[in-house]
Design goal:
Keywords: Membrane, Transmembrane, Transmembrane helix. By secondary structure, the protein is an alpha/beta fold. It folds into two domains: 67 residues; 123 residues, 3-Layer(aba) Sandwich (Glutaredoxin), CATH 3.40.30. It is 45% helix and 12% strand. A six-stranded mixed β-sheet has the order 1-6-5-3-4-2. It is rod-shaped, with a radius of gyration of 34 Å.
């Protein structure tokens, strides 16, 4: 009888020891889970903060570039550029024109790349709507023309066309603004786009760049 009681007591002791060991493992696993989860959350928060700071830094740099003057840029007094609608050709004082009286129909300028010359009186109306007009002549390299066409093809409120009689091989125009660039990789290209696509110079901000005419 005593031996049976001793065996029961020993079995209970082993069961209790196993229960304590299982509880200890459960507590250890919970602690590990909490620690891992905390590390993941901290990591995500840290990564999120890093991304946020990086994006903020990019926006600040973009804003700084937008405010900085474009080197070599020419400007005309926007208030002195005519804005009347006309039905005849206009003799503009600069090539390509950056403003002035123009036709009532605008050239489509929603990522439009034209292979042939376009009417100035229609392109000027596009500038009035806040478009940037990229132009080139026969001196421009095929590689530069292709790269600029790709940029225009990705940018609403921009258009591109050849202008045979322009002075520079590659030129960018906005309402009252113009710059000649050295190549498609010239940093002034991005700066000009950032600053003047629907920029503060735009007389008719938000006006359509579609629904006009095309080739």
């Amino acid at each position: 009888m005593a031996s049976h009681k001793t065996a029961n007591a020993s079995r209970k002791a082993r069961i209790e020891e196993m229960r304590r060991a299982e509880q200890s493992r459960e507590r250890r696993n919970r602690l590990i889970t909490i620690a891992v989860s905390t590390a993941v959350v901290v990591g995500l928060v840290g990564f999120g903060s890093y991304v946020f700071l990086q994006e903020s830094d990019k926006k600040e740099k973009a804003a700084a570039r937008a405010k900085a003057p474009v080197k070599g840029e020419k400007s005309w007094d926007a208030k002195k550029l005519g804005r009347e609608h006309v039905t005849k050709d206009v003799s503009y004082p600069m090539t390509p024109p950056v403003g002035g009286d123009h036709h009532q129909a605008w050239m489509n300028c929603d990522r439009d790349v034209y292979k042939k010359e376009i009417p100035e009186v229609n392109a000027v109306h596009s500038l009035e709507h806040g478009a940037v007009w990229v132009t080139y002549n026969d001196k421009a390299s095929d590689a530069d023309v292709k790269k600029l066409a790709e940029k225009v093809g990705k940018t609403s409120y921009s258009l591109m066309s050849p202008v045979k009689d322009q002075a520079g091989a590659l030129m960018l125009s906005a309402w009252g603004k113009q710059v000649t660039v050295d190549s498609a990789t010239d940093p002034r290209v991005d700066q000009f786009f950032t600053k003047y696509v629907q920029g503060p110079q735009t007389p008719e901000f938000g006006a359509a760049c579609t629904g006009g005419i095309g080739q």
